[in-house]
Every structure is written in structure tokens, then in C-alpha cells.
Specification:
This protein is an alpha+beta fold. 24% of the residues lie in helices and 23% in strands.
Length: 288
């Protein structure tokens, strides 16, 4: 019998899980159950955990292969900081370039969908969180796909999209991406509809990194992408996660979109650390 206690967070997806200390090595049985929870709920939160970078990286390795950061060219870095607090404890204000760059996370997106092999899991550990704002919103693109008519699904299933990191980050600032990073992340082709290999469930694969749809005019492709996204992010489909120190959250980038909400970086401290688990293959190689 499972030792874990589940509390569902939204009618369409998400669960809070208690009864396990994820800072310690997981048994094979627990690892299997957590992976099954990810397949079922897409978003799982383990509250009141005691973590640090070493423990987070160990947890990441238990769930798969850690994904190197795309913002570190020439070196391997597995961590990203979400927030305005630096490792030495200093705080960056709202006008700092790093803070402005992170506002790109306020667009609906799937982490690293612009890589040839897009990310599977994101793992976020919260240490300091603002008293106001800073919620992260999530929606299920599996639920969005399920709401489509059979004819609409048949129309969308074969489509290929182009994901482009420079395209999305240029919305934040024209010089948001250095030439070096831009050269390391050329546009990639991805399926518009993906299939979970463990369950067979299908979902849309959207987000701010999607530039166009292959074989469609820019205007028609943009209209389709924007229309599908708008349908997916209607208020009744959104779960807003209000971060608390000690939260360890896993979310499935294959089938969720997320977007950050603003907070006052001049008034509040925010320090969260993110790692990711690599995907298994290109979406083009996945079973349809």
C-alpha cells in the first residue's frame, strides 16, 4: 500500500503529495509511484521539504538525466535561479537586466521546447517567496486536446510546428539573447500533438516559443497557434500555484503550459532553484 497522501489541486490536473521526504534517496517503488503520479497529474507538489542544491540534483538524477542549461555555453550548468536573490544573498531590483530577462517566463510556455529534445520534467525548489504576487499559473494541454472535436483532432494531429528561442525572447528585449546563445539554439521542428508513451494520452504542444506552423502561411499559422492557446488558458482551466518556502514541485513539460505572474522585485525577495530532466527523444520520433 502506498505511503503517499494525495490532494487534487484542480479538476483537470495537479496534486499535492505528502508522506515522503524527497530530499532523501527514493526507493525504486517510490520512484515508480512518483513517475506514475507525473503521468496522471502532470503537476505534483511536495510541500514542507528541506532541500539544497546537492539534494535537488540528486532527486533530479533519480528521475532521469539532468538537462544542461541552455544559457550556459561552453560549460555544464544544471541549475537556474528564478527570482531576484543571487547566490551570495544580494538582491537585484526590477530594472536589472537579469530581472527583466526573467519576465520572459511570464509568457505561457513549456520549458526548453526549443531544443531538439525538449525537456521532460522541471523541478523547482522554493526557498524565499514574495508576500504578494509571484504565482505561477499552469494549464493542461491534455485537457485542452480532450475538449476538441474528433474532426478538429484529425486536422491537428499531423501538423509540425517551429519552436524558436530567439523569437520568444526577442519579445522581452531585442538584445535579450546573445549572438553566442542564439547560434547554439537554432529553430527546431516539433509535433503539434504529442502522445504520452506510458498512457497513450494525447496533448497539444504549444507555448511562446512556437513561431510558426510548417506548411502554413505566417498569418494562418499564427492565428491557429494563438487560437488554440487562448482556448487552453481560459480562467476555468488555470491552476495558480502560490509558492511557499519548502515547496518542491515537479511538472511535466510535455503536456503543461505555465506562466509566471509579476511580483515587486524592489520590495520582495524571491529565490527558487530549478533543474530539469531531459526528454527521451525528439517529438518527431515519438509515436503518433
Amino acid at each position: 500500500m502506498s505511503q503517499l497522501q494525495y490532494e487534487e489541486l484542480h479538476p483537470e490536473f495537479g496534486a499535492s503529495i505528502r508522506g515522503v521526504d524527497v530530499s532523501k534517496p527514493l526507493t525504486p517503488e517510490l520512484t515508480k509511484e512518483i513517475n506514475a503520479a507525473v503521468d496522471r497529474y502532470s503537476f505534483v507538489c511536495f510541500p514542507d521539504q528541506s532541500m539544497d542544491d546537492d539534494r535537488q540534483l540528486a532527486l533530479t538524477r533519480q528521475l532521469g538525466n539532468p538537462e544542461p542549461s541552455h544559457t550556459s555555453v561552453g560549460k555544464t550548468e544544471y541549475f537556474g535561479t528564478i527570482g531576484n536573490v543571487q547566490k551570495d544573498g544580494t538582491v537585484l531590483g526590477s530594472t536589472h537586466k537579469k530581472t527583466i530577462f526573467l519576465t520572459g517566463n511570464n509568457m505561457w510556455h513549456s520549458d526548453a521546447s526549443f531544443k531538439p529534445v525538449p525537456a521532460f520534467l522541471s523541478i523547482m525548489c522554493a526557498y524565499e517567496t514574495p508576500a504578494e504576487g509571484g504565482v505561477t499559473m499552469f494549464v493542461s494541454l491534455r485537457a485542452a486536446y480532450d475538449r476538441l472535436s474528433p474532426a478538429r483532432k484529425a486536422e491537428l494531429d499531423p501538423l509540425i510546428t517551429i519552436h524558436d528561442y530567439v523569437f520568444s525572447r526577442s519579445k522581452v528585449a531585442p538584445d535579450a539573447v546573445s549572438p553566442e546563445i542564439a547560434a547554439s539554439l537554432p529553430p527546431v521542428r516539433q509535433r503539434l500533438v504529442r502522445t504520452n508513451p506510458a498512457t497513450g494520452a494525447k496533448n497539444l504542444f504549444l507555448g511562446s516559443h512556437v513561431r510558426e506552423i510548417e506548411g502554413m502561411s505566417p498569418a494562418a499559422g499564427r492565428a491557429l497557434i494563438d487560437g488554440l492557446t487562448e482556448e487552453a488558458i481560459q480562467p476555468e482551466h488555470i491552476y495558480g500555484h502560490a509558492w511557499q518556502p519548502g515547496d518542491v514541485v515537479l511538472w511535466d513539460n510535455r503536456c503543461l503550459l505555465h506562466a509566471g505572474a509579476a511580483y515587486d522585485a524592489d520590495r520582495f525577495r524571491r529565490y527558487m532553484r530549478q533543474t530539469r530532466v531531459s526528454g527521451a527523444c525528439s517529438t518527431l520520433e515519438e509515436a503518433a
